[in-house]
Records
---
Amino acid sequence: MLPLISHWLTQLIIGASLLLLTTFVLLEISRYLRLQLSAQKSLVDRINRALPQTQCGQCGHPGCLPYARSISLGEASNKCPPGGRETILELAELLNEPVRELDPAHGQFRNFSVAVVREDECIGCTKCIQACPVDAILGGPKLMHTVIASECTGCDLCVEPCPVDCIDMVSHIAPSHSTAFYIDERSSSGSLL
Amino acid sequence: MSLLKQLASRGFGRDRVFARRTVGGIQPLPFKEHSLRSQIMATPIPPQLTIPIGVNDSGAITLLVSIGDQVLKYQKLAVISIAEKGCSEVPVHAATSGVITSIEDSIVADHLEQKQLCISLATDGLDEALQPDPPPNYSQLPNADLVSLIRDAGIIGMGGAGFPTADKLSGFGESAAEFLIINAAECEPYITADEALLRERANKVVLGADILRKACAAQRCIIAIEDSKPDAIAALKQALLEQINLEQGCELVLIPSKYPAGSERQLIQCVTGIEIATGQHPTENGVIMHNVGTANACYEAIIEGKPCISRVTTLSGQALKTPKNFEVLIGTAADFLFELCGIEANKSQNGIVGGSLMGSRLESNKAAICKTTNCLIAASENEFPTPKAEQACIRCGFCADVCPSRLLPQQLLAFSKSSNTTQLLEHGLLDCIECGACDYVCPSHIPLVSIYKKSKELVETRNQSLEHSNYWQQRFQFRQYRSKKEKDQALSKKADASTHSAQVTKQAAKPQKGEADFISKEQASRDIAAAVARVKARREEKKK
């Protein structure tokens, strides 16, 4: 028996199979980890897709994606007023939770509306431009600003910073978009997610 | 071996036209014999025509006449093009001579439930017509010319969908169609317009079918008709015998008499075995389908040179003394036709446009007949009793048995009630043809089709909001990317500036600031003071 084990060919075979086994185990472990990671990512992705992407911050997070991440880690999913009842239902189904009413601490349901600048009252302070999460406001320092209605998500964020209160939320028919021109520049420098 | 060769020469795949067993369907009691007792009657010219042009905001309408104009029969009144559906221009012609009195939105006997722009024509009874073009021999015309002649005649799908026939014909581009199917399956219990047309004008329909076959260069032309219409089949066979010298004859296929056999996808599958996938168009599968009425209109346009100014419409229902098929001028008011049939005013309860199963309510008796109005029903009170109260679904499964699209209506109902759009789409809501077979058999009287219609709207709005949210997400990400880039640039600039002398940047910055400052300082301070005062006033108001 001993001479068989000590034979160089047997040792080679044992060594090779051990090597193969370790490689296989390592590969399996990495695959499992990747799967876990992607499952987590896809959950965030799916939650994010259910959110309305108005980026309004009414949930207390700076944008929809951070809220989606937080939901995936266990935060309540009923803090999104612009999503309406559909978002709550969809999230409840996705997370396998009972349907809850909207948390009144974060606002109430209302119809889709867009911001409109009362242009003769605007003093051109650019504060609303800085607040707008989707670059829907056009204007320059000490020049009149205006909201591009088709780009506005109705997030309300520009109303508060305006020092002269010249922005109104006006209910509006659903927006229509032109083709996006800016995607090329962004994709060349990789995803932000 | 020789048999195999013979089969191969005929083409294995090609020779596949026969009536297959169809899925689902119902056999409602027919009410066809009432309106088939008499021949198609040409209507007298009504005193007023309201010729529908099209829904005002759906496409570009070009009016060729104005109020007060004297027009002749066959004169072009307007051209409409629905760009979003990829339709080219379709003209509308005057049905008789007279003076145009008004151009405004009014109700049309249509399934759209929407007002359409109509040209009102006060007829003069003279019926003066433009001389129709000398009829060209269509068999010598190239296909493109034939299609443009059909387009100029203003022919749209007479079966109900109303898609411009010329666009349907030219939808193949370079590749030729394999099958042209003439849809003579009229499965709605009340409608007999196509059957009457076939009984009396089978020759015209067969020639019209040949024109359509030539226009789309189809390899085979098939007329599909239900086996429950012996008179029409006999007339068709006679006509096919007479027209035996046609370049390529038509084939006649008898299909089982079932509702909804006349639905486009169902009929294609029954006759050719080709199943059209969700979201696909029959033309992508080499099949094109036209209605019998369309074939007749093509005959009139190409052989007789008359544009599409009339159609055959069934008038039926128990409130009418003599239900009939009429050759109606486009734009005739519904009540004019009801009068001709002897409507019993005390009996009439409600009007229906289209058939009893798929039709919609007639909004007003003044509604005008358009090119797609195939049937008007004046129902008596007990003809269509008000539906009984809805009860809970008992999951009997009758609806799944009759669904011609092989859907599961009770699952769709459950998901509709919980507004679950994902599951609705997965269960094929968009494949529902709204035939109403499930409604018909439901023992709990659940108005399934109207629920599905609402669900389809819900899915539509959900898709739209998804589109918006994707767009907004992109915008937000781009903004984040941009602000990060700007920050980085500022940082690198700062690093650069520290190496350079500070004075240079100062000098460069100063004149720029002066240039931008074109409002005088006093003016600015006055503006700001005024704005602050306004805000104060408003805030106080709010507090009160």
---
Amino acid sequence: MRFAVLVEVALRPGIADPQGATIERSLPALGFDHVSGVRTGKAIRFSIDADGEASARDQVDELCRRFLTNPVIEDARVTLAEEAVPR
Amino acid sequence: MTRVGVVLFPGSNCEHDVVEAVRALGGDADLIWHGATDVGPVDAVVLPGGFAHGDYLRPGAIARFSPIMAAIEAFAADGGPVIGICNGFQILTEARLLPGALQKNRGLTFLCMPVELQVCSTRSVLTADLTLGQRLMIPINHFEGNYTCDGETLSMLKDDDRIVLRYVDNPNGSVDGIAGICNAEGNVVGLMPHPERASDLLLGSADGASLVRSLLSAAGGPRPSTAADGMGIRATPAETALTARA
């Protein structure tokens, strides 16, 4: 089985996010006065082959822990969807 | 003559400054390509500043899987002095050779300026020849230099005398004003300031030379006894292959 994976990497609460802060500060100049709490992050997409969804999720969680995130400052949210394998 | 190996990653940019500083102080220094699997006959290793592997993903995240890192972990575990300066410090935290992480500066800006530092521990190879409380003027040059760690780690760093340098006037929001830390044995040190850029009065300050001199004298002497503390996570062969072609 093949799964389409979306990993959203976000800075943990309390970790400085200069991009988010700068975007938020610039919004009033464009007339958007009611936006708050802007936080930026990364979206990483890939496909993974696995026996089932649980196995795919285990592999992706391990990948996130060891490489895609630094657990000291970042969290990851993983979304999986089965996709067709071309024959 | 004490030999220092300075690791060159794709994107390093302070390696020649470190080589010059070491040679000016009477040591010998050579570059080590990150794709090497052996540090060679060196007495100390320096991971210099720059943007290893473009800082892609996170500073140090890809560099920690460079082939040379397994040899550096073994060198460090054997008591060999390993210094990470700026991007090198970020690599050492990503490699789990030092705890914590470097997040973006509190003031939201890249900082490039001389800062005053205070020597807070003399048990590291980088500060063994200095005096506790001694003040040094050394430049910083970073965006991700704001040291952070959980409360438990901070207590451990304090209790075990592992905070090597603190900023006198905290420029980047680092927890407890931390500018540099060391491992339990004192032979692995990471710091954000650049001693090599303050190694001659022509550069505005020669205070960094005392740190480099301390490293050279420690590297030439006996090594501390070490015990594996379980912090190191080795790259698997597949992970090493990830960066071997770069």
